[in-house]
């Protein structure tokens, strides 16, 4: 369980989540956020919210849709 918790923390604080936002926000906007705004000391969702770009709930919706798209490909 400790590994799962640590893995989730690492994921939420990385910019890997950015790929799920591309369909919603567009590649260039997401790339700009990753390059200019995101700091590893805060979660990517916190970055979106603090920059006024998206609420955590909206970001979670994007992630869920991304996972659903990936699962439908199989």
Automatic annotation (TrEMBL):
It comes from the Bacteria. Pfam families: FumaraseC_C. Residues 17-63 form the Fumarase C C-terminal domain. Coiled coil: none annotated. One of its GO terms (biological process) is tricarboxylic acid cycle. GO terms for molecular function: lyase activity. This is Fumarase C C-terminal domain-containing protein.
């Amino acid at each position: 369980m400790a590994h799962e918790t640590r893995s989730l923390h690492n994921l939420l604080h990385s910019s890997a989540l950015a790929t799920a936002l591309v369909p919603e926000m567009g590649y260039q906007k997401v790339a700009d956020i990753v390059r200019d705004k995101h700091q590893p000391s805060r979660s990517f969702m916190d970055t979106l919210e603090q920059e006024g770009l998206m609420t955590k709930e909206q970001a979670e919706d994007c992630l869920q849709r991304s996972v659903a798209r990936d699962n439908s490909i199989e």
